[in-house]
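## Example pair
The file below holds two records. Each record gives the amino-acid sequence first, followed by its structure token line.
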Amino acid sequence: MPQPNILVIMSDQLKATASHLYGNTFCQTPSLQRLANEGVMFRHAFTPHPLCMPARVALWTASYPHQNGSRRNETPISPSRPHAFAHWHQQGYHCGLIGKNHCFYDAENRALFDTWCEIGHGGPSSEAPVGIPWVRPIDGVLQAHRVRRNMPDVSPVFSYAHTDYPLEDYGTGLIASQTERFLEEHQQDPFALWVSFPDPHEPYEAPRRYADMFPPDAIHLPPWDEGELERAPERNRVLYRLLGMEDEPMEHVYGLLAAYYGMVRFLDDAVGQILDALERLDLRERTIVVFCADHGDFAGEHRMQCKGGVFYDALTRIPLLVSWPGHVPEGVADESMVSLADVVPTLMALQGEEMPGWVQTDPLPTVTDATSRDAAFSEYGCGGPAFTMEDLRDLDTPRGRASLMRSLRWREAEGRRKMARTRQWKYVHDPMGDADELYDLVNDPWELRNVAGHVAHAGVEADMRQRLGDWAIMTEDALPVPQPPEGPLPTPPDAALPERR
């Protein structure tokens, strides 16, 4: 039997609970349900890092950020780092990317891709696509991204839009059609394709027909606890000052959430279009399909939107589905604690390949013979100084997106935070300071009460701390880690970071 094709479909900033598969009460995702019926759904999958680039590098290198050196959005995959597409290229696969990159930037890695159709949050890349021309006229696509490149002023904290362009010209529609064309043209080739949707990452803009599926009376807000921040570490309180929605008019809160969940439903229909194409072209049983996300979004949880350097499940828990009809179980929900970084060794195991030495994570259980695991881990930061409430007050605009962007690179680098997560407990520790976090996820599923330091939970906290320490030691990298550039962190061209005292 020839080796199977590989199709990894990634969404950007999609929290697991945005789908009814993971408990959402008002956002149905029938195409993801279809994929789950044809494969295995992992109920407890987590990102190795709740930030775009580090999560993506961790996925393709099958390693954690502290192993591969990509701990910020400014550290793409190194040309010297082994990764899945270099491996598949050597195996003779037609390698492709359709959608958002945010991972591979150097010429050496780019040359591994036979098809390259890059499109980000603001529209297609200025570089012409390689392998397949755009299936839609570029002028219409650019017009459909005009609002995203210049979002309306809704509030200092966030913006959103519901718009009326042709669905095929939005990023989600274009990527689905581009993928369908790829499958038509390469149905006889062994391929490894990364389909990478920029949605539902901000800018929060959805086609009106999808946003209208979520009127205010259909959206169920998560619980908000005004006392939550009194028990939270300073890093969490800083983030709330930047992203908090509590003081915003509720019509705008509901408008933003309608855009977010509208983007999710649009994405789900796009996944359905791709699955239909696989079946129409008789590729379904010859193709391993993975659906995942790089990380999540608050989407109203903890009175916030967007994301930041904290470890609530809204940001760290992701959807993960693996399907290969006739070869992996179908309609099964796996309860193991697993990671996005486990996807590549899983694909290689399903391909029947010997595991390369650079793979530092484990295949997923249920779809392979790997054993179940009872803990998952995530991390954030690369040893930079803390960004405090006092630093936030020094900014000209101490609240909202302007301050978010002005402080972004500082906050991405601060500390060396790490998370250990079991079915019942979550523990977060930063050896560089600030308070620990401990959440009882059975009795406090929304993570509103930090019980770290409570005498009643001292034994649990000690056990979770040991799990975290053991993981850090066991995953210490044996491969060279690319060194960050010398000197201060780069500064956005339109803003300077406040001077550190």
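Second record, same layout:
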Amino acid sequence: MTETYSPPRDRLASPPATRLPVATAAPLSTLRGAALYIGALLGPGLLLLPGLAAAEAGPASVLAWAGLLVLSALFALVFAALGRSFPSASGVTGYVTAGLGVRAGRATAWMFLTGVVAGAPVVCLIGASYLTALTGGGQLVRAGVAALLLLVVLALAAFGLRTSSTAQLLLVGLLVAVVGAAVAGSAPATRAANWAPFAPHGWLAVGHAAATLMLSFVGWEAVAPLTTRFANPARQLPRVMGIALVVTTVLYLGLAVATVGVLGDGAGTLVPLARLLRIAVGPAGLAAAAVAAVILTLAATNAYINGAAAMATALRGDAALRDDSARPGDTAPRRPAARLLAAIAASGLLLITAYGLGLASPASLVAIPTTLFLSVYLGCMATAARLLPGPARWAALAAGLAVLVMLGYSGWALVIPVVVIAAAAVRPARRRPRSSPSRPQEA
């Protein structure tokens, strides 16, 4: 029987909040909350994706950046409304469960988990690309370095190492500083001739570039569980997301324009930031970019793995998908399970090997987690369109339509979320036993 969800009489009534230790922590200030959102949006993908987008659409790739920034504003509005209306420590899984039912929530959790796992080897390849740009080496060497980075992070995760939120914020500050130095320092080398022809691969290529760049705009959902830690979410969330949107807009557009305007025909490189830094500060720029890329790779992959561990714990039982079923003291395991680490190692090394042998391009590897996260966003937009009133509903409808368009550009990668949804549907949803008040339990 198909399960349905009947919204409460007050459609904006919040489900009971999950009683996790994070909920009892000190309340988040607006500035620290904004820093955490910026940290969720920015990541190592910013070191690679401008080059991939320029290779796909040429100078017209800046239109993809601009369009996605508009879409990012819609995402911010929708997730702020969801966070205010449904404060939930389970994030996107809780949202989709509330709006579309337990089966949809479980499928969303599986897609999010698979996207995180598939993203780990991509991040390692980014770090490897910047390192080999400094030391030399072809595609096979780059794949070997990426595999080594992945194994190092898995070893650290096996010993229970976690990256603190403070360390993550410091790393984001490092990325912002490096991007700012590259953009500002290389600006004098901008050439107007680099903008012609503007759309060398046709206008449809802008859509392909947008689908690739979407991985840099995933993150509004990642900090959704933190909505329970704001003292006044209704007042703070709009300010927090507004600050995050402004900062990311300046960085993204600045890097996109610099990549095309400065690098010209060389914009379609795997290491655009390294090229810009070399122009800005000389040969030392390559070394600075390599060090920053490796540090960001290790930290981001570590966060990926620990996030996957937390999601895998929630998937042990469907009851964990509902906020009112969590028990006091429920936490993610201190160390990821050996089976999870083995799965990440197997899938990551397989994808990296395929790249090293020339069987998979960087764009195709990026397409896997991007398509999965797009599918997660589609579920969240559908939930918002169903449960939220006013401007948030219209924003969700517009954003959902844009996500559908980008999914249409995903091509073969659409098979991945279909397979994940089918796998999630194989396991029947569990129903919690309900005690009847008319039949008291026996002693």
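Notes on the second record: Residues 102-135 form the longest helix (34 residues). The chain has one domain: 24-426.
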